[in-house]
Every structure is written in C-alpha cells, then in structure tokens.
C-alpha cells in the first residue's frame, strides 16, 4: 500500500511542476531516431495565441553522452503565414572546456534550453512553421557531419516575455 502512495505522490508532483510553468505558451519535442541526419528537418507548426504580446523563443534539445562535440550549429527557419521566411544559423555551447556536457539532468540525458529569439511579436494571423536542422562540421572537413549521434529529442518553446506580463 505504501508503494502505491509514493507513486501517486510522485505523479501529483510531476503534474504540478508541469502545470506551474506559467511562462509557457508552446512547448513541444520530437524524437530523433538513433542519429540525426544532416538532411532531416524537425518541424513545428505554431498557432500563436495573440498578436499583441511579445514572446521569447527557444530551441530545446535533449542529448546523451554520445554527443561528442563541444558546440552545436543549427539552421533554424521560421516561416510566416503570408510567405515571409527568416533563416538563422546559430551556434550553441554544449560542453564546458573540460568536455563536461552542459544542460540540466541527473542522468546520462541532458536538457538544454537554447535562446533563439527575444521579444517576438506574432503580428501575422495564421500558422507559423519552425524548421530546425543541424549544420555540424568536423574541424578541417568541408562536408558536414552526415549523421549526428547523441541528440535524442529536438524541441521548440515559446514563453511570455517578461516585458509583456
């Protein structure tokens, strides 16, 4: 009987932690099967809640110790409802100078919340699409890393900006 009470308590705590995230507007992950191919694009379709408030945008990643690089290059493309597209090449630190992976997590899996854009206004009505792909290269090599290991999930998050609350 005590074991079921512990499981119930853990479930309640987990639900409370998720529901207390008042800044969250959109938060979704998609799994990367085994290896992230350089031509594989992870897409998120977003219907913003309104056009008057500013939002902060993040790329979320889950990675394991199989990730062997100190940094990560991503190409993030935002497609607006009326055809405009913004494409950015971004670099993020994934490990400290000693090689220890950055991010949050007590196990082999680390979560990284990476800044994408700050104070964004979704002023076009309709659905937006965010496409994310990796653009990793090994030092001294021209061709990109064909299959990136160690990234397990790619996510996208929209939060209320502190200035808009």
UniProtKB/TrEMBL annotation:
PROSITE patterns associated with the record: PROKAR_LIPOPROTEIN
Annotated signal sequence range: 1-19
InterPro entries in the cross-refs: Motility-assoc_lipoprot_GldH (IPR020018)
Keyword field: Lipoprotein, Signal
Superkingdom assignment: Bacteria
The UniProt record lists the keyword DNA damage: no
Protein name: Gliding motility lipoprotein GldH
Source organism per UniProt: Neotamlana sargassicola
Organismal lineage: Bacteria, Pseudomonadati, Bacteroidota, Flavobacteriia, Flavobacteriales
